[in-house]
Amino acid sequence: MESALLAQSLLLALTTAGLYAAIASGLTLEFGVTGIVNFAHGEFVMLGAFLTYFLYESVGVPPLAGMLLSGLAMTALSWLVFDSFLSRVLKQDEHNQILATIGLSILLINLAMIAWTPDARVMHAPALLPPLEIGSVIVPGNNVVVLLVGIALYAGMIWFMRGTRHGLLLRLAADDPQLAVLTGVDVTRMFRLSFLIGGLTAGISGGLVALILYVQPLVGVDLVMRAFAIVALGGLGSIGGALIGAVLLSAAENLTATFVPGGGSWGYGVAFVIIVLVLVVRPTGLFGSERRA
After folding, report:
1. What is the pTM of this model?
2. Short-list 77, 211, 228, 232, CA closest to 150
């Protein structure tokens, strides 16, 4: 019985890791390229979740198509936000950058509460895949979808970064912006591109949130805190590290929820403990490196 419970917990942790990794991938790419810790990233996930929810519940758009449309919408919003003020903040003190993204986060949350109330909503979508049954362990089909979409997002991002010219330019801009400028790279354009990719992943991640969790204005705050723990654990700016960090955090949360009395409400606590331990023991994370001054 204990082994079945452990297997169930670990399999669910793996599917949850797909969601966490999808959210953290965009966040760590934005930081890795621009050096900005985007506290508003969770609100882009929240907006993607609301958009997917309303597209399905009001218009009947299938969830997977809704996720894609949400991703495109958040890409457009990221472009608007970057060109309207973030590109200017990039040239300022890092404290101003932090305050700018925190301010944007608070603004988006308040607008969402005014528009849609703080009440949680549940998208009543059908199972997109049959349940995964391994012996006595059963994983709901929509959780499997979340895992598959998370893997696809990650594979796509790694291919883009390592197999395309724009990925190479992004890495050049991230490693040494001044040297990149001297070699003819439009660094501002690369910074914008990193935010567009971050917006795309946030919108799709929001669709995954709507599929298996709930939708409400503060859902992004909850998830982005976990994303920060993942990024800190995997290493700031490391996309591969974020994937491993997502698996470790998700496993820690699910095992705590399963085997510790009252552990289901410890999700935030587990994330904070990981952040503190990493900052004390290895500030650069498992796969991170010191950023150039």
Report:
1. 0.87
2. 211
